[in-house]
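Follow-up to my post from last week.
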Amino acid sequence: GESVGLHLPTLSVQEGDNSIINCAYSNSASDYFIWYKQESGKGPQFIIDIRSNMDKRQGQRVTVLLNKTVKHLSLQIAATQPGDSAVYFCAETYGGSQGNLIFGKGTKLSVKP
Amino acid sequence: EAQVTQNPRYLITVTGKKLTVTCSQNMNHEYMSWYRQDPGLGLRQIYYSMNVEVTDKGDVPEGYKVSRKEKRNFPLILESPSPNQTSLYFCASSFRAGNYNEQFFGPGTRLTVL
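User reply:
Got it. Predicted complex:
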């Protein structure tokens, strides 16, 4: 079946540096992608989303890039802060089954002070 | 306060003993969903509901049942739990399916099946 995966299971960055978290997806029919942040002991929290008709979307300190050619998604966090330490998940869905959300396995981001 | 609540938060049970994990939201959301989270596997969708009396299987529905008799509640039922259902379970809701930018997650239920 379709799967959403991640290139790196862990990422360690220095406070103030930029972070890039990557995600590969396999379902070419997927047309909507979401990034979630999960802090220890909590449920996932929405960060940013992007639809397949876009290549880039920016939020506050975060940018999501979508490359449909290679089915790759990335989350960039500018000026990473200790509060950004968490596990980050990408997720995908597609118009034909919007209720079915498929998550990737997650990347743990650790920010060193 | 807008929230998704789950009960119980922690449960240890034995194989074969039927259990129900409740999920309730107070936001009049149409869409609700159950996920399980296991180390190295991320979150996997068990069942979801687009509205009252409308439920669909997610990616890992085997061994689970759900019901959506009223809008606010979406209980997850394990008729005969087995050790491989030991996991962390999350319920989530949003106004509609696809409104994931405003999807609320519950605090999680940690289930251990002995």
